Amino acid sequence: MKYKAVVFDLDGTLLYTLEDLMDSVNYALASHGLPRQTLGQVNAHVGNGVRRLVEQSVPGGENYRNFEPLFECFKRHYSLNCCNKTRPYDGITGVLEKLRSEGVKTAVITNKFQSAADEVCGRYFKGLITRVFGEMPGIPRKPAPDMVFKALEALETPVEQAVMFGDSETDERTAQNAGIAHFAVLWGFRSRAQLEAVGAVNFLEKPEDIAGAVLGV
Predict the structure, then answer these.
(1) What was the pLDDT predicted at 49?
(2) Rounded to the nearest 5°, which phi and psi values hold at 91?
(3) Could you tell me the CA-to-CA distances from 164 to 122, 151, 155 in Å, in that order?
(4) In whole angstroms, what is the distance from residue 209 CA to residue 217 CA?
C-alpha cells in the first residue's frame, strides 16, 4: 500500500453539488429581490466556502446592506435542501468501498459548514468515510493547512503516509501549504489549465483512478 490515509475534498471531488448550491443561492437572492445566478456563475464561485460563494453572488458582496440576513437565509435553505440534486460522481462509492476493504483511513475536509457536510456525507457515504471536517470556529478554512493536520491527527497518520484529492485551486494550495501529496481530479469544477496555473502536476481523469493512486497498483 502506497498511502495509509486519504484526505478528500467534498464538492467537486466526491459529490456533484452545484445545482443544490445554485438553488439555495437563488432562493436567498430572490428573497431580497436580487438577480439570479447562472450555473456557470455559481461554478466559478465555489471552492472557498459558502460565505464566499454568497458574497460573490450578491451585488456589492459583504457591503450589501442586508448581507448577513441574506446569508442566513441561504444557510437555512441549503440545510434543508442540500440533497435534492446532489449525487456522488459515478464510481466514487465503489472507490470508497475498495479503500475501506483495504484498511485505508479516510477523511473529508471541506469549507462547507459542518452541519451540511455531515448531512451529505451521512446520506451518501455512511460507513465509508472515517471522519468529516467542515468549517468550524477556530480552524482556518482551506487553503490554510490546518484542516489537513486536524484530519491526519484524527486518523493517527503522519503527513508522509497520506495523500489528498481535490478539484480546485484551493485544494492544490491547501496541499502545498500542508506538504501533503496531492492529486487534482478533472471531473470536478475546474479545468486542467486552471489547476496547472496554481502548480498542480498530478492529475486523475476518472474516479476509478483513485484506488490505484492510493494503493500503488
Answers:
(1) 84
(2) 95, -15
(3) 21, 11, 13
(4) 10
Residues 6+ apart with CB under 8 A from 101: none
The dihedral built from the CA positions of residue 145, 150, 155 and 156, taken in this order, carries a sign that is positive
| CATH for 117 | 3.40.50.1000
Q: Is the pLDDT of residue 1 over 90?
A: no
The reply to whether 197 and 110 lie within a common domain is: yes
Q: Which three cell numbers stand for residue 102?
A: 483495504
Beta-sheet strands, E only, within 52-211: 87-88, 105-113, 131-135, 162-166, 181-185, 203-204
CA dist., res. 165 & res. 205, Å (int): 12
DSSP, residue by residue, 7-31: EE--BTTTEE-HHHHHHHHHHHHHH
Q: What pLDDT sits at residue 217?
A: 77
pTM of the complete model beyond 0.90: yes
Considering the domain architecture, whether residues 101 and 179 belong to the same structural domain is answered as: yes
Q: What is the mean pLDDT of the chain?
A: 95
Same domain as 11, residue 114: yes
Q: Which domain holds residue 100?
A: 5-16+86-215
Strand 203-204 relative to strand 181-185, pairing = parallel
Of 102, 109, 96, give the one whose Cα is nearest residue 151: 109
Cα gap 84→80, rounded to integer Å: 9
Q: Which pLDDT tens digit goes with each residue over 88-129?
A: 999 999 999 999 999 999 999 999 989 999 999 999 999 999
